[in-house]
Structures are given as C-alpha cells and as structure tokens.
Design goal:
Length: 294
C-alpha cells in the first residue's frame, strides 16, 4: 500500500525513541519572525479591513500601511525584546526586505538573527509561473546581503508546487519549514536527495490566532503557557521543538506585545527551555541522525 504522505513516511510519535536533550534542555524554542514585503502597487495578500462598498482598490492604503506599521514599529519592539532576553531569532524574510527595507534588514543582521528564505516578496510560490527563478532570486539576494548561507526556507503561505522540495534542495537549502507533521525534525524524500523537515506551526502562530480566529490580546501568551504546562505534565520526557511563528504587524501591536513579552520572559527563565534558530536545530538533529543514504 502506498504511503499517504509522498515525502515523509508515517509514524506514531510513541513508536519513536525520545531525542536527547538539546544543550541540556527539553524544549527548543524557535522564534520564527516572518518579515514580509507587500508591494504597494499590487493586491494585498491579506486584509485587516475589507474594502468600502466591497470594491477592492489598488493602492490598498489601509492594508499596506497596516503591514508597514509592523515593519516600522512592531519590528522595533521585537528586536528590543530579543535583545533584552538574549534571544537569537530566525528571520523568515522576503528577500525584498533586503533591497526595499535595508535599514530593517541591517538591524536584523546586527542582532545576529538567522536569515531564512521566504520568497522574493509575499506571494504564494504556487501562483508564480517561474517559481524556480523566484527561489533562486530569493536565496541569492539574501545570501548576498547577509553573508549567511541561508540554509532554511519557509514558503510564503507555506505554499509549494509539486517539485518545490527538489528546487530548494538543488539551490543549497538543507531545512524546510512547510511540512507541519511533527514536533521534531524528520527527514523527507526528494529526487535531489534528503531534505530535513523542521517543525513549524499554525497553532502558536499569530495570524491564525488573531486574524482568523479573532482571539483576545493574550491568546498567544495563553497558548504558550498551556503548551509548557502540558509538557510539564509528561515530565518533559521528550525533547521537542516549540516554534512560535510571528508577524510584526500582528504580534507587534502594544496590546498584544505586553502579554507576549511576559510569556517570553517566562520561557527565557525556564530551566527546560533553550532558544535556537532553524539551522541550529537542523544541525543538531543531523549530527544525531544523519541523512538517509548520505
């Protein structure tokens, strides 16, 4: 019988031996900050305000400026929080952040955040005709700006075409966040060789929480604390990755940042928590479990 998942064979978590502790800790927190460029002269990928009279307009001033507020103000708050708490974040950026918002890109580089590929600008890869060229442009732009290898990728909207993992692998990507199947890294099959799937989240993710479910200001902090309480219930018997997915225009507003910052202070002080970026997690796992047939 064929495996229902064409990339990652099915397994029960309970059938898999627990991973050893990461730097002596059982909860690996990856703070994944999505930093996006929404072109002013194109339709917005998402809207906080529906258009008056139901007529969409370009430029879409309120929704464009909603997102740019996040780049100006929300990112300043997130950078300050990470500095205060000693957190090195993963910066899942559209490559045009480097060219259109170089001051922001430089601030993330100075903060030693890891640059993770996230497309050229905020557009689903599956809708782009020449997706291969888009991947190449995104990676080359980020690598040239940052001087980093840019080894990890998250598709805009987690969007892929059928051969996207192969395209990424051939362009030097080692780690992929699009597949939401586990709390630990897992190897996935591609025709270009094994690719490591890294945990991502739609549960500890500010867009589903606030933009889709319209939950209250403290909902992200509440979920983080509930996650940790459940891990504690099991005695932290398994090492897990807890990715926290953020967008500065969503989490970076004051009424959400207050409770979120407090929750991050609790994580930073927790004896079972270590913060790590995408490639740090990927390299740790690969050292324990090398790529199949590699």
């Amino acid at each position: 019988m064929p495996d229902p998942n064409p990339r990652i064979p099915f397994r029960l978590e309970s059938d898999v031996p627990p991973l050893p502790a990461f730097r002596g800790k059982r909860v690996i927190v990856n703070l994944a900050v999505n930093v996006e460029h929404w072109p002013f002269d194109q339709p917005m990928p998402r809207a906080i305000l529906t258009p008056p009279h139901g007529i969409k307009a370009i430029p879409d001033v309120p929704n464009f400026t909603w997102v740019e507020y996040g780049l100006r103000v929300g990112m300043s708050r997130l950078l300050e929080m990470c500095r205060a708490l000693g957190i090195r974040a993963s910066n899942l950026s559209n490559a045009q952040i480097c060219t259109h918002y170089p001051r922001l890109a430089e601030a993330m580089l100075q903060a030693d955040w890891e640059f993770v590929g996230h497309g050229v600008y905020q557009r689903a890869l599956a809708t782009i005709e020449d997706d291969k060229a888009a991947v190449e442009e995104a990676l080359s732009t980020m690598r040239r700006f940052s001087g980093q290898k840019v080894r990890a990728w998250l598709g805009a909207g987690l969007s892929e075409k059928a051969d996207t993992p192969e395209v990424l692998r051939r362009n030097g990507v080692d780690f992929l966040h699009d597949w939401l199947v586990d709390d630990v890294p897992v190897w996935m099959r591609t025709e270009a060789g094994p690719l490591l799937s890294l945990p991502y989240t739609v549960e500890l993710n500010d867009v589903p929480i606030y933009m889709l479910a319209s939950q209250g200001s403290t909902a992200m902090a509440d979920r983080i604390r509930a996650n940790m309480a459940f891990y504690a219930r099991g005695g932290f018997e398994r090492t897990r990755v807890m990715t926290i997915a953020l967008h500065p225009h969503v989490i970076g507003v004051a009424h959400r940042m207050e409770s979120f910052w407090a929750a991050m202070e609790e994580l930073a002080a927790h004896p079972q928590v270590a913060f790590a970026t995408s490639s740090e997690i990927g390299d740790w796992f690969t050292a324990l479990h090398p790529a199949p047939h590699a």
